[in-house]
Amino acid sequence: MKKNQTLLSVLDLVPIGEGFSIGDALKNSTRLAQAVENFGFTRYWIAEHHNFNNIASAATSVILSHIGANTKKIRIGSGGIMLPNHPPLVIAEQFGTLESLYPNRIDLGLGRAPGTDQRTAMALRKDKNDGSDFPLMLNHLQYYLSNEGGPKAIKAVPGHGLDIPIWLLGSSTFSAKLAGQKGLPFAFASHFAPDAMEDAILEYKTNFVPSKSLEEPYIIICINAVCASTQEEAEFLATTELQKFVYLHRGDDRLLPKPTEEMDSIWKDWEKEGIKHKLRESIWGTPKFVKERLENLVERTGANEIMINSWIHDPKKRIESYELISKEWMR
User: What's the whole-model pTM score?
Assistant: First the structure.
């Protein structure tokens, strides 16, 4: 059997589950990063979110520094930093520091959404920046990480002149088009926005212009996946993901729930229909089933890499899920 050439990576939102503290969540994510490094995953990314009771990844750069200190070779990065929340110089300095600590291991993935609600976004920002100047902010960030500028220029120290890969992340066609025009790699959020996936991929490839950092388009597709030894167990574990999106839709910001046998008593029929549509790219099943679905996803999208997020309540089961996927994928 031919070994798959498509790379696998990990997205982690540092979930805080029922019965766990924030400290537990951070320790669980550190153990996950160590485990997936051993399993052969290419990169481990953390996503910036704010004011969520069940997500502990607000101080993304701080967590990445801790993860870097507790791993050896896996690439670590942001999936992503929500750039309009921050002055570009600060992000250049933060990731320049990370690159200086962990050379050739850092990815800087960028998004333009706030990663929170509008009230919290206003608390994060000094102005009413709605992300519309994201392209300009990206230009500034690239400048601070470059060798450009004379002796009197403002420099990111650390950061100036470092070759830190920048990725654009998106759930629509906006960042896809921009990534293509800038010649940057692109990661699409199919784990919560599959409706725009095909259009975003087309927009990226159509607008792609080779750059110093990238000669050809490079696409990561991010999806949710749960793998277990039986289909029944995987689908049971995946009820955590279903509940997560039910409560998110309702504005109920509770801790990541334990799996349940009673989904039909939790959601309404119309909620079930909408959430199943939103999560239609999610993959839950045995190693063989997950592999087949991943191969189908690669065939449909032309993805160079698949990034997997797992909404599994039990941290040991979450690690086991990634282990089962990696073993089957790398056969």
Answer: 0.95
